[in-house]
Design a protein that fits this description.
By secondary structure, the protein is α/β, with parallel strands linked by helices. The chain is built from seven helices and six strands, in the order E-E-H-H-H-E-H-E-H-E-H-E-H. It has a six-stranded mixed beta sheet. Helix 2 crosses helix 3 (103-120) and helix 4 (136-145) crosses helix 5 (161-167).
Length: 207
């Protein structure tokens, strides 16, 4: 079982913890993690882009000139695609880009992402993450003490508004709950800061 140090919010080591091999010690599957990231990004797309076809643009009811004898190419409408202010041929229309991944694929991707952080030194376990008041300054100090000045994902077992609001204005820092984390966020942040209770809950869900 991989072992990890437990720190307090002041950055002092206060103990050690054994992590589950089934959650934090598997060989990461890069292909599956890539699939999960692509799926996440696709599901975030609004798909509201739209262009007007020749039947939707205004005007163009009259044939611009007679069929033969003018020397021009024959035209049926001034709103055909080759005309200025004409419709768009084969342009985008509103659509749903979302799709679902197989449950086993999603599970393997999550385990691979968690193991990547544990094996790569990006996992920081804190005995408890809590704020006495709404203070961004305190959160900045905690991150500095933990050596997590870069992009960091802070994970707690339950919603704590003081923690969430204190971290909201810090660039590159995001908070999440155990049941809302995703592979994209885990891989997209350099440090994965998680409380002891959150680690236990992760192991309970994914082990």
């Amino acid at each position: 079982m991989p072992k990890v140090s437990i720190f307090n919010m002041s950055g002092q080591q206060v103990g050690e913890m054994e992590l589950s091999d089934a959650v934090f010690g598997i060989t990461p599957n890069e292909h599956v993690m890539h699939e999960a990231v692509v799926n996440y990004l696709a599901n975030q797309r609004q798909g509201t882009q739209s262009t007007k076809t020749r039947s939707e643009v205004s005007g163009g009811g009259k044939k611009p000139w007679r069929q033969k004898g003018t020397g021009h190419a024959r035209q049926g409408s001034t709103r055909a695609t080759q005309w200025r202010h004409g419709g768009i041929a084969l342009g985008p229309k509103p659509r749903d880009y979302s799709y679902t991944l197989n449950k086993k694929v999603k599970r393997l991707a999550m385990l691979s992402a968690l193991s990547t952080k544990a094996l790569g030194g990006g996992l920081i376990v804190v005995d408890k993450i809590e704020m006495g008041e709404y203070k961004t300054k305190e959160m900045v100090a905690m991150l500095k003490n933990l050596g997590a000045d870069s992009k960091s994902l802070i994970v707690t077992p339950e919603a704590d508004q003081k923690v969430i609001k204190s971290a909201a204005n810090i660039p590159g820092v995001k908070t999440a709950l155990v049941n809302t984390i995703n592979v994209y966020d885990i891989l997209g942040h350099d440090k994965f800061i998680v409380s002891v209770d959150a680690v236990k809950k992760l192991e309970e869900v994914y082990a």
